[in-house]
Amino acid sequence: MRKTYKKNDLISFENKIGDLYINNKLPFLFHFSGGNEEQLIDVFRDIKDGDYVISNHRSHYHALLHGIPPNELEDRILNGRSMFIYDRQRNFFSSSIIGGTPAIAAGIAWALKKKCSNKKVWCFVGDATEDNGHLFEAIRYVDGWDLPCTFVIENNNRSVEATNQERWGKTGDYQWGSRSVIKYYYKITYPHARKPGVLDLSKAIKKTDEEYFPPLKIIDYPKFEEFDSLDISYKDAINQSMTKLGEEGAIFIGYNVAKGDAMGTLKNVPPAQKIETPVAENLMSGLAIGMSFEGFLPVLFFERHDFLLVAMDAIGNHIDKIERISHGEYKVPVIIRAVTADAGPFYSGPTHSQDFTNMLRELVSFPVLDPVTGSDVLKSFKGAKESGRPALIVERKSRY
Ligand SMILES: Cc1ncc(C[n+]2csc(CCOP(=O)(O)OP(=O)(O)O)c2C)c(N)n1
Fold first, then answer.
1. Do the bridges between strand 121-126 and strand 52-55 make them parallel or antiparallel, or are there none, so unpaired?
2. According to the model, what pLDDT value does residue 249 have?
3. Which atom of ligand 1 is found nearest the CA of 192?
4. What totals of helices (H) and strands (E) does the chain contain, helices first?
5. Is residue 218 part of a domain?
6. Element (H, E) at 284
7. What is the pLDDT of residues 31-69, one digit of tens each?
8. Which of 86, 162, 230, 301 stands 20 to 30 A from 195 (CA)?
9. Ligand 1 atom with minimal separation from the 160 CA
């Protein structure tokens, strides 16, 4: 059972963190909660143990109210993790990237619905997340598919220091008209962290990046020598790998996946394992992340590298970082299929035929594989599946 908190308990915790800061004990960027105690206590009355709580850069109150013990939370804050609070056991997840969480929340909710679970997802966002389209995509998706997810917009009329009106002109505070959205209003107790005089970490002793967030071990796939002698074409190997992944229960996500079978490669996959998504690449990638948290094996399909750029937050900040930033608590075994129309009759002009393989290798730490032969293709997909970690596999039209 979670401990219940009164307004003053929450304030006392935050005051204690304030004292740590004044004594130069906080090594890293942090944001105080404050001013919304009553509203949050009220919302948390409907949140059950086992529900997912998804928070953001300002997560201390959410974490306490969802049952993370104060001493554990304090320890994490002291170790530079104020903006990155996770608890796998309690289904607590956060991202300090504005707009990064709504699609992930929708993906978790999709998985919970598929499993007929009675758990729900509660995604807390500030009014700055209302500034970007990622929230819109997720709300529309959650509403359309009746997913068990509520977005709680915590409107303090500030993004860092700028008011809604200063950001948006007279449209200011936006009204959603969605059954999945709750919005409450509050006045912040503390200024935003970056205001001069509020955050001066120059005196604090700092550890290295690696000490705060130990890097993940490099993945070496087994050699799979059994595939070496096979005489199989590149395209047949892709079809065969998809059929095998389908038999193993993978879920294929993207557009032209159910309609068109991802250029014919998913013909042997049962329809229930193909999710036709809107043309919203960040949303579909977030869906894959969220589903993976609930044990699904998502295979994300991008029919051209050019379109990957729209999903860069999900790929570079989330699929790639979640395991490391959560100290291994959350894993993201998402396989990304990235087709490039690099030559021949498929060439379709400068924004439809780019090859970002090298750029992707710079961006992410997980394997970016570029198989050359049919047997390489089989090895790549098998290795990716067995690794339990993310992988991106390039598919070249020139090798089809
Ligand atoms: C994509 C992205 N852009 C910019 C930032 C920098 N940033 C950190 S907090 C913040 C404002 C957040 O405001 P809001 O979501 O309303 O939450 P509040 O801090 O008011 O609780 C910004 C712009 C970020 N973290 N992510």
1. parallel
2. 98
3. 19
4. 16, 11
5. no
6. helix 281-293
7. 999 999 999 999 999 999 999 999 999 999 999 999 999
8. 86
9. 11
Q: Is 271 exposed, middle or buried (0-12, 13-18, 19+ CB in 10 A)?
A: exposed
Structure tokens at 216: 């993940």
Q: Which ligand 1 atom is at minimum distance from the Cα of 100? A: 1
Q: Which domain holds residue 374?
A: 225-399
Q: Structural domain tally of the chain? A: 2
For residue 196, the model assigns a pLDDT of 66
pLDDT along the chain (400 residues), means of 10: 92 93 82 96 97 98 98 95 96 98 98 98 98 97 98 96 94 93 95 72 81 92 94 97 98 96 96 98 98 98 97 98 98 98 83 96 97 97 98 94
Find out whether 8 and 34 touch, Cβ atoms under 8 Å.
no
Cβ pair 205, 21 in contact under 8 A: no
- The total of other beta-carbon atoms located within 10 Å of residue 209's CB is 10
pLDDT at 200: 73
Output the pLDDT for position 30.
Answer: 84
Closest Cα to atom 9 of ligand 1: 160
CA of 128 to the centre of ligand 1 (A): 6
Nearest of 141, 112, 144, 138 to residue 123 by alpha carbon:
138
For a mutational test of ligand 1's pocket, the pick from 159, 183, 184, i.e. the residue with the most ligand atoms closer than 8 A to its C-beta, is 159
For residue 289, the CA-to-ligand 1 centroid distance in Å is 22
Final residue of a domain: which of 153, 177, 210? Answer: 210
187, 210, 233 - which closes a domain: 210
Best residue among 57, 127, 157, 318 to mutate for probing ligand 1's pocket (most ligand atoms within 8 Å of CB) is 57
Q: Which residues line ligand 1 (CB under 6 A)?
A: 57-58, 96-99, 126-129, 156, 158-160, 192
Rounded distance from Cα 105 to ligand 1 centre (Å): 18
CA distance 171 to 156: 16
Could you tell me how far CA 71 lies from the centroid of its own chain?
27
Same domain, 316 and 348: yes
Ligand 1 atom closest to the Cα of residue 99 is 1
**Can you tell me which atom of ligand 1 is nearest the CA of 126?**
15
Residues 233 and 374: beta-carbon distance below 8 Å: yes
Nearest-CA residue for atom 17 of ligand 1: 126
Same domain, 299 and 330: yes
The residue to which tokens 């949303």 are assigned? 283
Within-domain flag for 203? yes
CA angle 109, 324, 326 (to 5 degrees): 50
